[in-house]
Amino acid sequence: MKRFIAVTAAVVAAFGLGTAGAQQKTRISIGTGGTAGVYYPLGGGLATVISKYVPNVDATAEVTGGSVANLQLIGGGKSEIGFTMADSAWDAYNGLEKFKDKKVPVRALAVFYPNRMQVATLDGKGIEKVTDLKGKRVATGSPGSGTEVMSMRMLEAFGLDPNKDVNRERLSLAESVNALKDGKVDALTWVGGVPTPGLTDLAATPGKKIKLLDHGDAADGMRKKYGPIYVKNKILANAYPGETRDTTNVDVWNLLVVPESASEDLIYQVTKTLFEKKDELVKVHKDAAFLSLDNQMTGASPIPFHPGALKYFKEKGLKVN
User: Fold this and answer.
1) Where in the chain is the domain with CATH 3.40.190.10?
2) Spatial contact of 146 and 251, defined as CB atoms under 8 Å apart
């Protein structure tokens, strides 16, 4: 992809594939998501913090399709750090679903923040619950996104065939929001932080009233089929303008992931910087406040941590495997 920085000698050296001059800048690409979501601004903040505090490293946040795309980019050697949902990371690590033809040698750098599934429609559509989506036009996330993966599993848990019972539109969040505003779809699904800027924009649109659908009951079915990754939770009232009810939802943790071959020293430095400069990331988006050492060795990551991350965790007194 032209968007991604070519792998220089410095990148090769930093990720364990060769050597480079000590003073040469290491350029790393951080795979994020679409511009209307949370991965992108947080990725931009992370790139700034890494470039500022990790010696001889320049980091850049890249717009991507999201979790699956980021894992594929790491697997293809085109990205050095990626945001991903834990379920997509599990699939990549084990060669399941979209990765059945090629496992990705990926490792966790950190458990970041809980990703909140959100199913949104507008007042007046006659949609009160998830099963009302049968026969409707639903935007279920862009191709290669974690949103698409999770949306398919959520619909399935409610007894809907996502390929037959709904008319799926594979759109990015920005495209989904515009399509719902324009009446081209009846509902959208999204997995991201709360509030998500794109949904805030939808809720603030004159003449439109957002409605979030309860879907927390899907968690049990999703866990039974896909593993202990999904958790029932709730989105509090007034998270978005005009939505005054608490709504149940399904959560999955977000991870930062890196190639298995990445330099232990570099990943140690990045992990240390991530946690010790957390306050600067919180200024970018409040969901960065969830970043905590307490969440790291709890099983929230279904894939192994990189040795560089474990080195930092051990220094901070965590019991590592």
Assistant:
1) 9-113+254-315, 115-252
2) no
Q: 95-108: buried (b, 16+ CB within 10 Å) or exposed (e) per residue?
A: eebbbeeeebebbb
* pTM of the complete model: 0.74
Non-local CB neighbours of 281 within 8 Å, separated by 6+ positions: 42, 45, 46, 49, 274, 288, 291
The C-alpha atoms of residue 30 and residue 74 are separated, in whole angstroms, by 10
Task: Compute the distance between CA of residue 269 and CA of residue 254 in angstroms, rounded to an integer.
Answer: 20
Predicted local confidence at residue 9, as pLDDT: 37
- 37 near 63, Cβ under 8 Å? no
What angle, 0 to 180 degrees and rounded to 10, lies between the N-to-C axes of helices 264-276 and 307-315? Answer: 50
Phi and psi, residue 236, nearest 5°: -75, 155
- Bridge partners (DSSP) listed for residue 247: 235
3-state secondary structure (DSSP) of residue 247: strand
Topology annotation, domain 9-113+254-315: D-Maltodextrin-Binding Protein; domain 2 (3.40.190)
CA–CA distance, 46 with 289 (Å, rounded to integer): 13
40 and 63 in contact (C-beta within 8 Å)? Answer: yes
Residues of the chain with pLDDT under 70: 1-23
pLDDT value at position 23? Answer: 67
Distant-in-sequence contacts of 273-278, Cβ < 8 A, 24+ apart: 273/49, 273/50, 273/53, 273/54, 274/46, 274/49, 274/109, 274/110, 275/110, 275/312, 275/316, 277/49, 277/53
Backbone φ and ψ for 121, nearest 5 degrees, come out as -140, -170
Q: How far apart are CA 47 and CA 258, in angstroms?
A: 14
The architecture of the domain spanning 115-252 is: 3-Layer(aba) Sandwich (3.40)
Instruction: Please give the Cα distance from 273 to 55 (Å, whole number).
Output: 11
pLDDT given at position 226? 86
Report d(CA 72, CA 79) in Å as an integer.
9
What is the reported pLDDT for 22?
52
With 0-12 / 13-18 / 19 or more C-beta atoms within 10 angstroms meaning exposed / middle / buried, residue 17 is: middle
